């Protein structure tokens, strides 16, 4: 039988609770429950000889200097505690369990003090700082604290971070924005084709999103979409080129260096996109997975006229293959201009980026 002894490395309340299950046995043997419990205390912890019951024993253990050291040790552990998301190899469930245990051991029961320790454990970036402040200001219990913390973590796992892998689904037709290396238009400048492809994400529909900071905010972030399977090529437009079926602005996959190599003027190649919420014009916040967005770009060939990314049921053929057209236009926005951005793989930033 492995009977727990007390050596100052466990909270007295927890130790008393652990040995209570032996009460039925010690009550009639070994000199009684109280005397047996006292005998299990490490001899380096000096106790009064006048302890009359378990409550007095527990209080005596708390008054000993070993308990002060124990509490302070757990406070220092709280101060150095760092939250690591699952995307970086962490475990939120174990973190919360450890956090609550340290608070218990250190006898930190004040909710504001608990908030402070939890906040300091988070990665220091704008998202965690702003979300924690907004959600925690009205929290008044431990259960609320953990619930709101979990909500922050769930939302963080869906954020679109710089250099993450994404796919863009056309809402109206359900097809994904795609390109294929070395498959080119037969019209216009014969650049690499962009089309609405399969109904599920496939290698041709994967893009690396780039915007030069960890998170993309609505209304003030410019993004680039680099095609994963192509050699350093981005989604963009060469303003004077027309789409093969509807003669709107042609959308292609290319790079500035490639345009120069084939003898075109690189100033007319545009690959910087803006995004906005398709339903709420002044929507604030961070871009996240499953947001429904409009994508726009300035056409430098036409004095930076703003045009929007669109697809529709209209098709065109190259050889024996048929493709669903993708264009840019400056007409009234509608359902054909809505795209759902889906997070395929979140880029892992360092902890305090």
TrEMBL record:
Keyword terms: Repeat
Location of the MIR domain: 157-212
Annotated PROSITE patterns: MIR (PS50919)
Ranges in a coiled coil: none
Full protein name: MIR domain-containing protein
């Amino acid at each position: 039988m492995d009977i727990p002894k007390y050596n100052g490395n466990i909270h007295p309340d927890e130790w008393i609770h652990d040995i209570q299950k032996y009460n039925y046995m010690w009550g009639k043997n070994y000199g009684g429950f109280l005397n047996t419990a006292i005998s299990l205390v490490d001899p380096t912890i000096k106790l009064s000889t006048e302890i009359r019951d378990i409550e007095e024993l527990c209080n005596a253990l708390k008054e000993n200097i070993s308990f002060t050291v124990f509490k302070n040790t757990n406070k220092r552990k709280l101060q150095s505690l760092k939250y690591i998301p699952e995307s970086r190899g962490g475990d939120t469930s174990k973190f919360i369990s450890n956090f609550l245990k340290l608070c218990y051991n250190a006898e930190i029961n004040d909710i504001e003090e608990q908030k402070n320790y939890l906040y300091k454990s988070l990665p220091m970036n704008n998202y965690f700082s702003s979300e924690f402040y907004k959600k925690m200001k009205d929290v008044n219990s431990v259960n609320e604290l953990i619930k709101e913390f979990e909500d922050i973590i769930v939302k963080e796992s869906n954020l679109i971070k710089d250099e993450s892998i994404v796919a863009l689904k056309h809402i109206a037709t359900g097809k994904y924005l795609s390109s294929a290396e070395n498959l080119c238009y037969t019209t216009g400048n014969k650049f690499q084709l962009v089309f609405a492809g399969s109904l599920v994400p496939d290698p041709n529909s994967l893009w690396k999103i780039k915007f030069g900071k960890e998170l993309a905010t609505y209304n003030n972030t410019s993004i680039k979409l680099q095609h994963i399977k192509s050699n350093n090529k981005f989604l963009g437009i060469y303003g004077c080129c027309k789409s093969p079926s509807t003669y709107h602005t042609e959308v292609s996959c290319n790079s500035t260096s490639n345009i120069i190599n084939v003898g075109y003027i690189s100033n007319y190649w545009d690959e910087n996109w803006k995004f906005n919420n398709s339903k709420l014009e002044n929507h604030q916040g961070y871009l996240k997975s499953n947001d429904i967005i409009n994508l726009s770009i300035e056409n430098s060939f036409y004095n930076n006229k703003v045009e929007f990314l669109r697809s529709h049921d209209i098709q065109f053929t190259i050889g024996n293959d048929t493709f669903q057209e993708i264009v840019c236009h400056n007409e009234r926005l509608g359902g054909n201009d809505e795209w759902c951005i889906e997070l395929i793989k979140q880029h892992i930033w360092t902890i305090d980026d």
